[in-house]
Specification:
mainly alpha, 7 helices, 119 residues
Length: 119
């Protein structure tokens, strides 16, 4: 009896074969696509290389929704050099890792100021 495989291994093997009709059918299913989208760092095959690299880029709407900020705040982050970007035909894109870096760089574990007025 062969060693059991993890589901990730099975999916990777199916996706590695560009002629695998089961994988192509599954890939079109919205529920499978939602699962794959929820794991943006998951790289399944070298065939998905171009597609997975594109997932590293976010547009204005994606960034505003992810950070819960307005378009004006996003523009300020671009203007003051806090957030690098690229522009193609008046559409602006941001690298996912740049946004994660800003979040990491501004992460604070400080305790809120205590009010020690009570003696």
């Amino acid at each position: 009896m062969s060693e059991p495989k993890l589901i990730g291994q099975i999916i990777a093997e199916m996706a590695a074969d560009p002629n695998n009709h089961v994988w192509r059918t599954l890939r079109q299913c919205p529920c499978i696509q939602a699962i794959l989208d929820s794991y943006p760092n998951l790289v399944i095959t070298s065939n998905a290389g171009a597609h997975s690299r594109l997932k590293d880029w976010l547009d204005n709407q994606d960034v505003m929704q992810a950070l819960h900020i307005s378009l004006r705040t996003l523009q300020t982050l671009r203007s003051n050099g806090t957030l690098p970007y690229t522009r193609i035909n008046n559409k602006i894109y941001y690298r996912r890792q740049d946004i994660e870096k800003i979040l990491d760089d501004n992460y604070s574990r400080k305790n809120p100021k205590r009010h020690d007025n009570e003696d």
